[in-house]
Amino acid sequence: MSRQDFTSSKVTSKEEAPFDINELFFSRTDDRGVIISGNEVFRRISGYTWDELVGAPHKIIRHPDMPKGVFYILWERLKKGLATGAYVKNRANDGRHYWVYAIFSPVDGGYVSVRLKPTSSLFESVISLYAESFNREQEDGLSPVESAGNIRAKLRDLGFPSYSAFSSYAVAQEVIARADVLARVEDERLQSLIRILPVLEALDEQHASLFASFAKTRGIPSNMRIVASRLEPAGGPISAISQNYRLMSDEASTHLGSFQGDDGSQSLPAAVAKKVYGALFMMAASSIQCEVKNVAAEGLVSGVEADGFQGEVDILDQLSEGYMAESRSVLQSVCSEAMALARSAKDLRQLVTGLDSIRVLCRVEAGRLSAQSVALTPVINQLDRFHVEIDSTLEQILTLADKVAAMIETSMARSFNCPLDKLPAAERNLSQVYA
Ligand SMILES: Cc1cc2nc3c(=O)[nH]c(=O)nc-3n(C[C@H](O)[C@H](O)[C@H](O)COP(=O)(O)O)c2cc1C
Predict the structure, then answer these.
(1) Mutual orientation of helices 236-256 and 310-369 as an angle, nearest 10°?
(2) Is 88 a pocket residue for ligand 1 (Cβ < 6 Å)?
(3) Which of 73, 184, 288, 354 is paired with 23 by a 20 to 30 Å CA distance?
């Protein structure tokens, strides 16, 4: 059978092409996805010969059940020079299938994909998500770009803010599950990063609710001034108080803006979460790339791999080292942002305390005006309610921000086994590699 026949054939069997969980494999392609090389495990599981694989497009092992939308997302990211991860169902030469979790990375002249056997509980949800996406492509005639949009929306429903957040979480879960199945020591570094994510999410929610509470207070000073003007001349102090309240409340709102991330497009907690996801991906990917490199190096020594394979070992080595350095660099910036977040929350509390004393002053003044101030009562009651709301949200923000800062610090120390001030300076920006 010619290579063309292999790629066009849609013959599949329900059977699985078996491989062991401790087996890791990789392939390297040019920038169009044409296979250049790989390790012997990759060749064996695919069921092809090297003559058939080298020079063939990687879709030689494409399984017809795979949604087009997944490959659309993959190539969209790869073409931007970004690493990515994906669950992929492949078809071996004999029609059997095998699932992998693949980590795709841009390298000089093309891409490298390292793969492991997925075993996490997340994998089960992905199988149904893929089946649903595939059906929608078939039944509703979705284009790859539409299907990609649909997949991203489904992932958001599952709680992932973006595809990259999903693939980071997935690679970490797969690395953790694999260590578990192989009864290896669990990688605490990944777990400690994963634990930070829900805290950042809660912080983001509280941040949004604080914004909403402040928005609700905006009309109150004007209402107060209107009422005060009707009480003239006795309402003078209330007018002055309402003006002070407006000024301080504006200041607090501006300060709330400092909870904005680097690019200003999202909240600081969401921007920090994005970086944590990035560090998670880099760290988990690096550990698998390192292990594949060791498998490749052993294959070279034992003679399983052909001469000239050292170049592949070197590429995997550089990749793994680079990603580990990257995760360290990202965590460093996460660490300083988390501290800034905690500081910012404390400054905001001071401003709100000031605001609260103006509210109390307003109550006192209204009490002094006694019967005259009846019209003020609903406005002041409203202010009281908002302050209770703001105080409780702020209290939660302070607790969460401190918790995040402490968790990141612990995670940093755990990840690099080194005091923070002894770490070398961050070298590159994450967005150049993974975003
Ligand atoms: C490094 C690398 C590895 C890839 N590995 C696979 C793979 O294992 N299985 C697969 O179906 N596609 C893989 N692809 C994607 C294919 O190039 C291709 O986009 C996909 O099979 C869908 O083909 P189609 O878009 O022509 O339908 C890989 C791409 C790259 C760059």
Answers:
(1) 180
(2) yes
(3) 73
Residue among 394, 416, 386 nearest 342 (CA): 394
**Is the shortest distance between the CB of 252 and ligand 1 below 6 Å?**
no
- The reply to whether CATH 3.30.450.20 applies to domain 1-186 is yes
Ligand 1 within 6 A of 33 CB? yes
Please write the tens of the pLDDT for every residue from 23-60: 999 999 999 999 999 999 999 999 999 999 999 999 99
- CA–centroid distance, residue 375 to ligand 1 (Å): 71
pLDDT (0 to 100) of residue 435: 67
Mutate to test the pocket of ligand 1, among 26, 29, 59, 101 (most ligand atoms within 8 A of CB): 59
Tell me, using a 6 A CB cutoff, whether residue 327 lines ligand 1.
no
Q: Determine which residue's CA is closest to atom 30 belonging to ligand 1.
A: 33
Q: Which residues contact 334 (CB under 8 A, 6 or more apart)?
A: 272, 275, 276, 279, 408
Atom of ligand 1 nearest to the CA of 57: 17
Which pLDDT does position 365 carry in this prediction?
82
DSSP state of 2: -
Query: Using a 6 Å cutoff on CB, does residue 29 contact ligand 1?
Result: yes
Which residue minimizes the CA distance to atom 26 of ligand 1?
A: 59
d(CA 252, CA 246): 10
Is any atom of ligand 1 closer than 6 Å to the C-beta of 61? yes
Q: What's the whole-number average pLDDT of the chain?
A: 88
Q: Are 200 and 179 in contact (CB under 8 A)?
A: no
- Closest approach atom of ligand 1 to CA 78: 31
Distance 319 CA to ligand 1 centre (A): 20
**Peptide bond preceding 233 in cis form (omega within 30 of 0):** yes
Cβ atoms of 36 and 56 within 8 Å: the answer is no
Residue with tokens 């997340």: 122
Phi/psi-derived region of residue 370, left when phi > 0, alpha when psi is between -120 and 50, beta in every other case: left
- Domain regions of the chain by residue span: 1-186, 189-432
Q: Which residues does 156 contact at the CB level (< 8 Å), separation at least 6?
A: none
Cα 154 to Cα 52, 133, 151, 197, distances in angstroms = 37, 9, 5, 19
Q: Determine the Cα–Cα distance for residues 115 and 118; give it in Å rounded to an integer.
A: 9
